[in-house]
Write a structure and sequence with these properties.
The complex is a heterodimer of chains A (201) and B (320). Chain A has 201 residues and is an all-alpha fold. Chain A contains ten helices and no strands. The longest helix of chain A has 29 residues. Helices cover 19% and strands 21% of the residues of chain B. The chains are: A mainly alpha (201), B alpha+beta (320).
């Protein structure tokens, strides 16, 4: 059975399939838009949609390493960069809905808002942290930086994910169950790493 | 200012509801059916079945109010599918889905407390107390969105005066119906229920404060606060308490639900004020449902002429 799974994970066709799966929320969005079902506040719908998927893909990306070790499926690494880049794609969409409809494309207005509102500050910080990670996601950049440096740099995703969860928690009015669920999953994923490094030393 | 932008659109310009609810059939009749589009449509229909049409319950409206705005009205569909009514769920689309089992008949509103003539009113009584007027008000939520709604009702002071409040009455407290059996989120919304609200007596007596029994020519849908609610157009939406069962004259400032939940974020007054931000977000702008970009929020939501005098000398940053 593990051999069969490994064969699937390493097959040529799995990458395009996983890619389509990662892009499928967009099909859902298109279907809803076509049916006029983005609700009374489409901008807010798009903001929540893109924010939710950013967080989900950050957590999926962070889950790759623990799952590789725990399930003994090293080939899962093939998809990690794709997951991370999808997180970046959805956060860009999220940012566009903010700088556009919310800030009317005013850079000055955005900076004022970022400085003044803690939940925006922390969300914006998370977005900025993901930019260098997206840029250096290529094999060329791994080579140029060297494996060790590259790995250190990419640990920024821990901070970015933390920013994302806090951003979500701070903007909710009274029902905190969903942000707390994301926080709990993130906590498990980060504690796993802490435990591993602790056992190594 | 912004009222000019849309010209003189009235309720007559709103898409008729029958046409609205049949829009999918109409679209289909037009034969727009590429295979991909059909696929998307089928997927959409499975995932999100269309909302059912509301029952026919027209109200007799005899007066068009001079307080009405001529701004473009928000669609009936939006006003009935984008609600904050935490007893029926905390997401905007929950109340439309979950308020179906809410029984609003029979209904009694008790007027009591510091007054000479406390009384209990049935919905029939309330509908006959005064001629119904249509008032098209701007409605601004504390969260930063707004709507324009043709409400139906009459000034709250009509029913308050009948009770003859005594000298001790300085505030009016309101309470929403509460029964977990009919309200699926009654115990899990995160806020303390039953929902309670309050106004200073002069605010409650202000002719703008509407005792509202309907909208868009019909009685109120459950998710919009059936069968009777307040509409206080110069305050943030949460002050406009829904599904009222109790109106009580009191001596001191009564507790209010959102203030009790987060006193630093939601004040007792909660007047719409672009100059006093919510601690977490700006109140300078708002998104009118149906629009992409935000517009400027007006002081007292544009009702300064009618209400500003009630607050002269008050520090509105302190009494937010």
């Amino acid at each position: 059975m593990p051999a069969a799974i490994r064969q699937i994970l390493t097959a040529k066709w799995t990458k395009p399939v996983v890619f389509l799966a990662c892009a499928s929320p967009l099909a859902f969005l298109a279907a809803r838009a076509y049916n006029g079902q983005l609700g009374a506040n489409p901008v807010e719908f798009l903001q929540h949609f893109s924010g939710d998927w950013t967080l989900r893909f950050l957590l999926i990306t962070l889950a790759v390493t623990p799952l590789r070790k725990l399930l003994n499926l090293p080939d899962l690494i093939r998809f990690r960069r794709m997951f991370g880049l999808f997180a970046f794609f959805y956060v860009c969409l999220h940012f566009l809905t903010y700088i556009g409809p919310d800030q009317a494309f005013s850079f000055a207005g955005m900076l004022k808002d970022v400085a003044k509102r803690p939940f925006i500050t922390v969300g914006f910080a998370g977005f900025l942290l993901l930019i260098p990670l997206a840029i250096t996601s290529t094999s060329g950049w791994i080579r140029r930086l060297g494996g060790k440096n590259w790995q250190s740099l990419h640990r920024l995703i821990y901070v970015a994910a933390l920013c994302g969860v806090v951003h979500y928690y701070w903007l909710v009015k009274s029902d905190h169950r969903l942000p707390l669920l994301y926080a709990a999953i993130l906590a498990v994923l980060l504690l796993y790493r802490l435990a591993v490094s602790f056992l190594k030393h | 200012m912004s009222t000019e932008k849309y010209g003189e659109l009235t309720y007559a310009d709103v898409t008729p509801k029958a046409v609205y609810f049949n829009r999918r059939q109409i679209l289909r009749g037009m034969g727009l059916a590429g295979a991909a589009l059909v696929g998307a449509k089928v997927f959409g229909r499975l995932a999100f079945p269309p909302s059912s049409a509301a029952a026919d319950n027209k109200l007799n409206v005899s007066i068009k109010s001079p307080y009405s705005t001529t701004e473009k009205q928000t669609s009936f569909e939006d006003v009935t599918h984008y609600n904050n009514f935490y007893e029926f769920g905390t997401s905007k689309t929950d109340p439309a889905r979950n308020a179906g089992k809410f029984r609003t008949s029979p209904w009694t509103v008790s007027v009591e407390g510091e007054c000479k003539k406390p009384a209990k009113y049935s919905m029939d009584d309330i509908l006959k107390l005064a001629s119904l007027e249509e008032r098209i008000y701007r409605h601004r939520c504390v969260e930063g969105w707004s709507i324009v709604v043709p409400w139906i009702g009459y000034s709250l002071n009509t029913i308050l005066k009948l009770a003859e409040p005594n000298e001790k009455a300085k505030f009016v407290a309101f309470e929403t119906f509460y029964e977990p059996g009919q309200m699926p989120w009654a115990t899990s919304s995160g806020i303390m229920l039953p929902y309670v609200e309050g106004l200073r007596l002069d605010e409650a007596m202000n002719p703008l404060t509407l005792l509202c029994v309907g909208m868009y020519g019909e009685s109120l849908p459950n998710q919009d606060g059936a069968p009777v609610r307040l509409v206080i157009p110069w305050k943030y939406g949460f002050k406009s308490i829904k599904s009222i069962i109790k109106i009580r004259f009191v001596k001191g400032e009564p507790p209010t639900t959102w203030n009790r939940y987060a006193p630093s974020e939601y004040g007792f007054y909660s007047n719409v004020n672009p100059n006093v931000d919510h601690p977490r977000w700006s109140q300078a702008t708002e998104r009118r449902l149906g629009e992409i970009f935000k517009r400027k929020t007006l002081m007292f939501n544009g009702y300064s002429d009618q209400v500003a005098s009630m607050y002269t000398g008050m520090d509105l940053k302190k009494y937010y």
